[in-house]
Amino acid sequence: MNLRYLCANHRQWLTADTDRAEKAWLDWMERGKLLLEECNYAEAIPYLGCAFDLASFLLEKQWPTYAISATRFSESAIWLMAAYRELGDEKLRNYILAGASSVLARELGDSHKQRVAADCISSLYPGDTQKQVRDFSTARLSACINGGNSLH
Fold first, then answer.
1. How far apart are CA 21 and CA 104, in angstroms?
2. What is the end-to-end Cα distance of the chain in Å, rounded?
3. CB-CB contact of 120 with 76 (8 Å)
């Protein structure tokens, strides 16, 4: 995938240390999800996009394990796609979907990773596995339209 969210300097600094990259991923995912909850979709994209970049790096390194890194990669893609969907940008949403699917599909030939890769690919596509994100989006949209900043 050619879409990049991290600048070269931050990419170099973060990818020099997998622990640092993992911590940044956790922080940026949390911040991005919070911004989505607050209907700040455009502001969420840089955080979720940087988390997606880091998840791609961590998946490449299989840090801390393949199963964890693949799951985090697909989670990052799902939330980034949700932000683009809320902004009405289906082109970028579909670009993330196709790219993430392609990255995960590379491991379908490995019998040790096949099940995890297949499950992660399935999670990217609409269906029961994305019900939570869709329900979140519907509730958020309703709250945003009604001027509320809370799901409660």
1. 20
2. 38
3. no
Contacts with 81 (C-beta within 8 Å, 6 or more apart), sequence order: 93, 96, 97, 124
Longest dimension (CA), the chain: 50
Domains, the chain, ordered by start: 8-145 (1.25.40.10)
Distances (CA, A) of 111 to 6, 11, 108, 118: 33, 31, 7, 11
pTM for the complete prediction? 0.83
Q: Can you tell me which residue has the tokens 């392609």?
A: 102
The string of pLDDT tens digits covering residues 15-73 is 999 999 999 999 999 999 999 999 999 999 999 999 999 999 999 999 999 999 999 99
Split at pLDDT 50, 70, 90, the class of 3 is confident
pLDDT band at 136 (very low <50, low <70, confident <90, very high): low
Please report the sign of the dihedral spanned by the C-alpha atoms of residue 36, residue 132, residue 19, residue 11.
negative
Run of H or E residues at 18: helix 18-37
